[in-house]
Amino acid sequence: ADMEASRAAFEKGVELFNDKRYEDAIVEFAKVIEEDSNYASAQSCIAQCSDNYKNSIISSAETAMNSNNYEDAISILEEADGILANDADVAAALEKARADYAAFVKNKALNEAKEQMSDGDYPNALKTVDNALANTPDDADLKAFKELCIEEDENGFLCADDPDDLARVIRGAL
Predict the structure, then answer these.
(1) How far is 31 from 27, CA to CA, in rounded Å?
(2) CA atoms within 13 A on the CB side of 57
(3) Which of 96, 124, 148, 174 has the smallest CB count inside 10 Å?
């Protein structure tokens, strides 16, 4: 029965491989037992499926990022990272997607906040920057812009919602 199940798994794996369903094919090829004459072929197919799956995932993630769908790209890559544990290419693509997303969020927030400030809407400019800082708390550009917003707002509008920010602005004015 084990040999029969092993051979059926190999045949199913080949079928899935031919349908480009690499993730499912890996599962089937992994069921092939060592005593099966197809074992070496199954191991080779697992490696090929893994490479094809990885290339497909990285390509899908790049397509998503090119459309500014960073959350989708990150989700796709995180799933692949779980399936292809410790794969350096997937890990590097995931790291790049996260960095690109952080830069995208930062630039979008800075542009929006600059527009809000030019309209004299300091409270919303500060909120925009604070929201971006929630995602990237260590970003020097966002921190500097927040300080600029608070300083410029000393002209009559205290826009700091955070009591610590407000206290710092008041201390700076004394």
Answers:
(1) 7
(2) 28
(3) 174
* pLDDT tens per residue, range 9-25: 999 999 999 999 998 99
d(CA 59, CA 170) in angstroms, rounded, equals: 52
Going from the C-alpha of 87 to that of each of 5, 26, 42, 82, 168, the distances in angstroms are: 30, 15, 20, 9, 47
Of 141, 84, 79, 82, which Cα lies nearest the Cα of 109? 141
Distance (Å, whole) CA 76 – CA 87: 14
Q: What is the C-alpha separation between 52 and 27, in angstroms, rounded?
A: 14
Please report, as a single letter, which amino acid is at residue 84: L
Exposure on the CB side of residue 78, measured as CA atoms within 13 A = 7
| Amino acid found at 5 | A
